[in-house]
Amino acid sequence: DEHGRIHGKVVAPVTTSSNQQMDILGKKLKILERLIVASRAIADSLDPYEATQAIIKESCSVLNADRASIFTVSLDKKSLQLMIAEGAKNITVPIGVGIAGGVATSGESVNIPDAYADDRFDPSHDKKTGYKTDSILCQPIQDTSGEIVGVMQVINKSDGPFTPDDEEVSHILAAQAGIALKNAKSYRAQMAVQRKLRSVTDLVRGMNADMGTNSLIFTMTTKAPLIVDADRCTVFIVDEKQNQLVSTSGEVNIRIDLSKPTIAGSVATSGEIINIPDAYADDRFNPLVDKKTGYKTNTILCMPIKSKDKVVGVIQLINKEEGVFDGNDEDLMGTFLDMAG
Q1: Is 31 exposed, middle or buried, given 0-12, 13-18 or 19+ CB atoms closer than 10 A?
Q2: If exposure means fewest CB atoms within 10 Å of the residue's CB, which of 140, 148, 172, 270 is most exposed?
Q3: Average pLDDT, stretch 279-301?
Q4: Helices 164-208 and 213-228, packing angle to 10 deg
Q5: What is the reported pLDDT for 275?
Q6: pTM of this prediction?
Q7: Are 111 and 103 in contact (CB under 8 A)?
Q8: Sign of the C-alpha dihedral, residues 281, 284, 285, 291?
Q9: pLDDT at residue 22 greater than cutoff 60
């Protein structure tokens, strides 16, 4: 100082040796390398279910975890759907319920070292399978705009609870998952458009060809669902003599009495479109077939087939792949039904 005195500087004691620092740095570099490899593997998958499997595989590998799951937010924003495989039965979790549902609501990650000590954990799946969930790391998945589109849940780290470093890594993986799921969704939409165009072409050719009534009905039954993304389709023909609707599929002959209140019957007698977003909330829906078969009818689009303003048939489409049937579906089907009539 100005008096010539030398003052020492207080230095915090060294707590980490150079070797330890190098070990920590080496571990982080290895994780970074694995993250780069994982990101490439995830980005290479365009199919939504392949992308999901890639995310699960790489998340377990990088985080040394036993299991992982990807949930996506439903179109109505009310539930999470577990991504398993195309065609498999959806497992849903209400938004705001449980660990994954809570993360989807809050947008905050959750790190649980002891699942059974957390009130949000539902042990019912463990009881059914015999599996024991110990630790859980749950991370929201956001798209490029920041909207939560899903949740990634990783279970049972091999060497103890998940660490703050694991939280950082899972955040990066979740960001990659958001991009991958968006790309996969766009790719799937493009493939769906191509399938629709092929179906439209086939349907138009069938209608213009002199193939007979049965062949035309078969073509409509197989191609119409692809045009509006429906799961099932039935075409009925009006039998005026018997006052019935008749549908023949192989050896099965379905007859609906037009004097009885049914959805298809109402369309046949009124000539008006019936579009039902929730079958079980509509009094006209008969759930007996669902009960017998185990099938679940959600949405219904039922439209008249007319010839010179006279109803000659009815087409009934069931369960749109995503969401409900809308005005675009009605307009598109209406164009072909005018030709078919």
Answers
A1: middle
A2: 270
A3: 90
A4: 150
A5: 95
A6: 0.56
A7: no
A8: positive
A9: no
